[in-house]
Design a protein that fits this description.
It is a single chain. The protein folds into 2 domains: 181 residues, Rossmann fold, CATH 3.40.50.1980; 129 residues, Rossmann fold (3-Layer(aba) Sandwich), CATH 3.40.50. The chain contains 11 helices and 12 strands. A 5-stranded parallel sheet has the order 5-4-3-6-7, with helices on both faces. The N terminus is likely disordered.
């Protein structure tokens, strides 16, 4: 499953579909590294439990996975190297890149030659890289490994990852601001849900893709980051199945949607760059058309380019989208 999440969207959803909430934060994106960590040596413990020692807060940073890229940009550190820049632009709108990063290849297997030419201080990756890639990069450059996720505390893990990146780049003050902004966004979402009389509304959130003519559906079960954020604002996850232990993602087909009750709202994300299996392939499917939430019009597509595995900015966008969907 980790490999699926790490590579699926880079494969243009052929096998799977893996903003700042308040724009004042944009003013901080130009803040140089060092706003909260000084300029001396830095030691960071990453998700492996490994201590990574830097002579100073990293300024020239490359990142492979898009959550790490989003963390860097939100902290005011524009990465010099990013995996699959085109894909990032299609799927992540909360923290956009400028025109300076260099594409370093795929998210699962970055180009070692390109990384070497960039002369970076640090490479930030997740545990989804191909075997041996981390060790190869570490021959010349410090590497911080972030956990892809953790269904036991998905929101806490998001901030753990953010804090690791912040410490490595000397941007801990900005990380604290991002946490405060997110807490405020949660409170605003709670108030909006309550005002709409929607506390406890059952929601099934998913994405989908087409494989050999069949629609595969990916439920975001309890423990997934999006589902847990929606739960924080008072919405109930309607999926009865368990997801994987890292991302909280399950698998289903259109027949599997019949387990959802009559009182469920069905929310999903798609992307115009890759199509919408629910609106296209399933439009004339008899099972789909007879599902209670389809017949009652309780199907809602979220806006494009909200990254389901991102940082506080992306999750703030999901809160806004959920409130809009309840309107």
């Amino acid at each position: 499953m980790r490999k699926l999440i790490g590579l699926c969207l880079a494969a243009v959803l052929a096998t799977a579909a893996c903003g700042t909430t308040e724009d004042p934060a944009a003013a901080d994106r130009s803040t140089p590294a060092g706003d909260g960590g000084g300029s001396g040596p830095v030691t960071v413990t990453d998700s492996r439990g490994k201590e990574v020692k830097l002579d100073a807060p990293a300024e020239r940073v490359a990142a492979t996975e898009w959550n790490a890229v989003e963390h860097l940009v939100s902290l005011g550190v524009m990465p010099v190297g990013v995996s699959d820049i085109k894909g990032y632009g299609q799927w992540v709108s909360a923290e956009p890149l400028d025109d300076t990063p260099t594409d370093i290849g795929t998210r699962g297997e970055p180009s070692m030659d390109t990384l070497a030419k960039l002369d970076v201080d640090l490479v930030v990756v997740t545990d989804a890289l191909v075997e041996g890639a981390v060790e190869k990069i570490e021959e010349t450059t410090p590497v911080i490994v972030l956990a892809g996720g953790d269904t036991k505390d998905s929101i806490g893990k998001m901030f753990d990852n953010l804090d690791i990146v912040a410490k490595a780049t000397g941007t801990e003050d900005r990380a604290a601001e991002l946490r405060a902004e997110f807490d405020k966004k949660i409170d605003e979402g709670k108030d909006a849900v309550a005002e709409a009389g929607a506390d406890g509304t059952k929601v099934a959130f998913s994405d989908a893709w087409v494989d050999s003519g069949s629609v595969s559906i990916r439920p975001f079960a309890k423990g997934s980051l999006v589902a847990d954020v929606l739960a924080e604002i008072g919405l109930e996850n309607a999926w009865p199945m368990e997801g994987d232990p890292v991302y909280g993602l399950a698998q289903a087909d259109v027949e599997g949607l019949t387990v959802l009750g009559d009182d469920v709202r069905f929310w999903y994300i798609a992307n115009d760059a890759f199509g919408d299996p629910y609106a296209d392939q399933l439009a004339n499917n008899a099972i789909w058309k007879n599902l209670p939430f389809v017949k009652s019009g309780e199907v809602h597509r979220f806006p494009d380019s909200l990254w389901m595995f991102g940082g506080p900015g992306s999750m703030g966008q999901f809160i806004d989208a959920a409130v809009d969907a309840l309107g």
